[in-house]
Structure formats: structure tokens, C-alpha cells
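Blackboard transcription, Thursday session:
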Amino acid sequence: MPGNANGYKWIGTRTIRPDGVDKVTGRATFGADFSLPGMLVGRILRSPHAHARILSIDTSKAEALPGVKAVVTSADFPEIPPSEAMKGSSPPNYRHLSQNLMAREKVLYDGHAVAAVAATSGTIAGEALSLIDVKYEVLPHVTDVLEAMKPDAPVLHDDLFTGGVDPKPDKPSNVAKRVEFAIGDIEAGFAEADVIVEQDYTTEGIHQGYIEPHAVVANMGEDGQATVWCSSQGHFMVRQYCAGLLNMNIGDITVTPAEIGGGFGGKTTVYLEPVALLLSRKSGRAIKMVMTRDEVFRGTGPTSGSAMTIKIGAKKDGKITAAEADLKFFAGAFPGAPVHLGCMCGFTPYDIENVKAVGFDVVTNRPKAISYRAPGAPIAAFAIESAMDELANELNIEPLALREINAAREGTRTAYGPTLGVVGFEETLEAAKSHPHFSQPLGPDQGRGIASGYWFNVGGESSASVSINEDGSVTVTSGAPDIGGSRASLVIMAAEVLGVDIDQVRAVIGDTNATGFNRHTGGSRVTFALGMVVVDAAEECVQQLRERAAKTWDIDVEAVVWEDGAARPAGDNAGKFEPLTLGDIAAKTPMTGGPISSKKSSNVQGPGPAFGTHICDVEVDRETGQVKILRYTAIQDAGRAIHPGYVEGQMQGGVAQGIGWALNEEYIYDEDGRLQNSGFLDYRIPVASDLPMIDTVIVEVPNPTHPYGVRGVGEIPIIPPMAAVANAIEDAVGMRLTDLPMSPPKVLAALSNGE
Amino acid sequence: MADVVLSRDLARRFTNGETQISVEAGTMRALVRELETQFPGIGAVLGDGMAVAIDGQIFQDFFLEEVGPNSEVCFLPAIEGG
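(Written on the board underneath:)
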């Protein structure tokens, strides 16, 4: 077994990824790969209007078309009254969710689902869609957050009254909620400042950009028992949401997870699954539905776009005295923008006595926003970390040094309330400062930007089992989809506890009947939370293994220790026995009490929050406005990297997505509110040739609540890049770009205007 | 006595603007019960979609958590990740 400088055998090693061979050979089964005999093809009719009242839907011609077996509209879905919108444990807003997956009364965005058909072929299903006659009354629409907040803006929901304000408004509006987080005295803080910077910023709505479109196969029997195969970030979530939307018993639905080709938060809800179940119920056949890329862009959740104002004041020595943020995020067609998370995270990297962050959650005629890695935090960080750079320029203090002067540490009171525990922000700054990248010389029109970010990470309900097989191999069964390498990390932790070779341990993602409930994979939670449950289960197996050895040797279990994958006498007084390996004990389990296994479930709490600091070098082409990323280094506190290769992969992936957010990605609507760039040719995400190899530095400040010190790692790396790129552009050409994306036309315009 | 920290939104609605309140309680369930006694109506809000940070550690589901005699208990919105 390999040794490791950290004192562990497997923790921190780069083992072969358990899912790797299947994925590189094409054997892995993704959502669209599954089929059942006799299944039908389901297709969805989508609104061509950004905002319109549905006057009538006539499906008769479609239903009469040979080969069409079922047609559904919102009339086939149970209507969920406001009083039952939030039923059950950790519910979504089922009323909004139902209205989003099939429009009632009004369509609220271009691409909003209106009807669905199931037919014997995709061609027939497509023809049937064209035969559905929907009569609309087109209404004024609004896709811009600031326009949506105006008093005369078209109102999307007649029953939406702004929450969080006194008195409660007497008229509906598009502002769903106002939130405020504050500490200290903001006016006194600014009065104390020697220098104040204040600036407006905007970001565009962008898509998570997962490569795999949404796909499902659903089959409902005459007895109401249903089975769903799909790719999602949580098959228990799919089961719960389908049951809640269709008034079914959770126990009547089995969901089997497929491999997932990217989610990034965008697959933490349902779009197709309940529709496919209804079509299956109505047709009596299994239904397969696969979105086109156009549907993914028009019908599924982007993240919010925003309009923000940031104001920061500081003393001449760089100490920040006050910081204020006004954040307006659009939520798309239904409330739920992550603006509160932006307010909470934005200033948390810094120890500031006086902070005020106000957020507004605003509905617009766009697809309903859904989570995207560290929802809300990257948006706020773009503005705040850009403002930090401006402040550094005003104070003539090197930007990283300004962050060091104000860095949050253990004991720092955050603006959203809690005092930070053990955190590693200063360590990321120190690692950045000592990295060769930080002092590498730059050429003409080249610049360097620094930015930092904070994310809470989460835990949550987690269930897993560890089973010792007859031949001494080990199976770890868990119930959270593996998006970023969780099978590898769970295998490593189980092998570490059991003291066995990594090749003896296999990880399986079970269906919804195989384990207890698991919260979906999101919030950077799985290696942390499921890892704790697997460690717990593996430790119970070790206890059972010790007991079996004790029975074999006829000594007390306290006289048996488990070391290097074998039971051994605790000392000379315990007796002289040859070690019994896990394999030895597994082979004899019928004689010592039967199978050895452990199932554990827990609501895991206490995730360690994390910080990251990024360094970005760019070169700006003054003739074309193109920004080339020359070099990029991401530094992040991972607590403890269970599998460093996967942690680095998360960091590199987050940076790549952040660079796309910074430079190119945006939804482009025409004047009628129709999306104009619903494909990857026109919606430009970074490709390999756009990016240098992303350097990574893993800082390890262990999370005290995890047995190996794990902190979540999947979300932090997308927080700093937009500001890091903006700050680098400013350093290169002396111009502050405040509106994302910083695409060539915008950069060129800024250069031409001498902004 | 645990030191309870409320957001200004909650303070405005329930505690006449007071954001820091001392509460004697051994568990979060008892703490919320005591707050409800002092500020009627706040209990339902704290039990719906809120998380807490106890001495800096965030708990999304918190009613069974223990509260130390000098603990800092901050109520905050539940956190969703991507």
C-alpha cells in the first residue's frame, strides 16, 4: 500500500477513478441511453411568446393523428393551491414548480411548456405538436431586472406582493422579496473612511451549460406503481417532487439514477419526469423524453442576472471601515433568485465592522432561475471583488495586500450573523503571494487580477451502507449521484477505515429503494456529508470484524485491535494468534454470525465553509477587443483533499465556467422576448483552445467536524473568476469593465470610448 | 445564557429592532420556544426555512442541537447549493 505524507494510507492519494473506464470507453449509461420495449417518444410544445394569456388549447387534431397515444396539458396536472405549495419536508414551492413545468392560464417566457404528446415515433410526436392549436393573447413582457422593478412594468403574477417590507404592499409587483443583512453602523463607517469607491455592475443570466441534455424514461403501471430512469443531481429529489406534483405516494415511485453528464445545480429540479409519468399513465406505455439543446436553453433554469451597486470605504492604511451592497437579481418567471446568498457571501472574506447588504428577488419573463455552483455568490463577488480592486487602486495598495489587511479569520463576525470558526482564507492569500505566478513579469497590454470568494458548503440527509462480501471485497452503496468524483472519495474513505487495498472496495449508487433518503448532490456536500456516513458505517464494520475475530479466538473483543486491514491481539496478554485479515474473516462469516454489513443514515451538519483566491493574467487585443487568458492559478482551502485529482478537477472546471461567464456567456433576447442564441454555436462557452492549463494549489486547513477534515470543494472555484478577469483587464488597459460578459464588442467599445 | 443574533428583518418584525437577545436554553427547541414566549409569532418564522449557526457552525435542521451556556446562535436563511 502506498504511504502518504499526511499519515494516511489512502486519504490524499490519486487513485484510479471508479467511473473512469466506463466513461472513456463509452459504456457509461447516461439519461438518454436507457430504453424499454415498446416505449413511446414524448415531446413538449413550448410557448413562442415571452408573456401571453392562454385563451384556449385544442388538442383534438393531435389526438386524432395515427400513432399519437396521449396528449397532456396543465389540465391533466393536479392544481396546487397556495395553501399546499410548501407541503412536506424541505419542499420546493410545488405550486410554482407545477406552473413552470406546464403553463396554466399564462405563459411566462419563451420556451414555457404548454402541452406534451406521446407517440410511436419522434416524427409523429413532432407532427402532433404542430397540430395543437393554442390561442394566445400576447401581453407586454419584461426580461431586464431594473425594468421589471419599475412601477409601470408588466406584472407577471397578480398574487405576488413584495415580502420583507413594511407595510405590506397593497399592489402586486415583480419584486418578490427584499432581504437585508447588516452589522454595525453603516453611516458612521463611511464617515470614518478616507477613501470611498462606489460603482454599478451588471451580470447577464447564463446557463449552467451541462453537456448532457435532460432525459428520462418513465413507466407507470395500471396499479399506479411507477419507475423512472433519469439523470439528475438527486433521484430522491426526483421521486419527492414527482410525488408532490402528481399527488402520488412517494413509495409508489422508484427512481434509478443514470450517469450524469454535468449538472452544476441545473439538475436540482424536475422538468420532464412528471410530464413523462403523466403521459405514461395516460397511454399505458413507457415514455422516453430527451430535450434538444434548444429546449435546454429555452426551458430550463439559467442562473440569475443582476444589477448591483457596491460602495466600500477605507482608511488610508487600507483598513475597510464600511461596505454596502445593493443587489437586484432576476429570478426568471417565478420567485427564488439566490440574492440572499449573494448578500451573505459577498463581504464574508473580509473583517469589516460596518456592513449592509440589501437584496431584491425579481421575477422576469425568462425561464425560472435555478441553482448554479454557489448560487448567488459568484454574482456578488464579481461586483465586490471588482470594487476591492478599485479601492486598492485608489489607496495605491497592492490588491492582494489590501485583502491581507482586511482578511477574515477565525473569530471574525460576518455580516449575516455568525462568527467564523476555523477557516483558511489567510492561508489562500499566503499561498497566492508565494506562488511564482504572482511575481511573473507581464508584457504590454497584459495584466494581472486577483479575486477571492467564500461559500458556506452544506451537509444534509445522507444514507449509505458498507457490506463485506464473502471474498473480502467491500461494497459501498450510497444514494447521491456521483457528479464530481464522490465514488472515488467514498471508496478512499472506506478503504482507509477498513485498512484494505483500494481495489477491494467498490462504490455503487443505489436506486431510491436501495438506501434511505439522500439529499441531492449539491452544495458541495457529498464527499463531506456522505463521507461521514460511510466512515461511520465502515467503523461499525470494523467493530463487527473485531467481534468475529474475538469469537474465533475465544477472547474478549476489547482484546482485539484492527490494524492494517487485519484483526490482531491487542497485546501479549490477549494471547498469541496469527492476524485475521478482512478476507479471512469474510470467508468464515457463516460460522461466526452471518454477513457483516452496516447501514447508516444521518442528517449531517457542520460543513466547513471555504475560501478561494485566484490569480488571472490576461492579454487584451486592442484591435479586436479579444481578451486572452494567459495564465490562471486557483488556490482553495479544501480542508483535506481526499482525492487531490478530483479536487483539482473541480477547481479547473469552476474556473473554466467562470471564465465563460466573464467573457462570453449571455442570453440574448430580441425585442419580443424570444431567446436568440439557444445553441452552443451562438451561446459561447469556453473550449479547450480558449484556456491555458489552469494551475491549482490546494490549501488544507482541516474542517474540525469531519473525521478527515473535509470541506466541500465544488462551488468555491466559480466565485472569483469573473472579478479576477475584470481586474486583470483593468490592470492591462487601465479600464474598469463593469458589465458582464466582457465580450470583444464591449471591450472594443470601452477601448474606443476611452472609458 | 446563549447570545441569539437575529437579522434586522426579523428584529423589525418581532423584537422592536433588538438584534441581540440573551436566552436561557439547553437545546434549540427550547431556545425557539423561549423566543416565542417573549416575542409571539417568531417561533413559526424561525421554524420555517431558516438555518442557524451555533458558534459558527451552520445547522440546516437544528431543533435537536444543543446550545451551550455561552453559545452564539445566529438565525439565517436556509442555504441551498448548486
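Lecturer's comment: Residues 460 and 603 of chain A are 5 Å apart (CA to CA).
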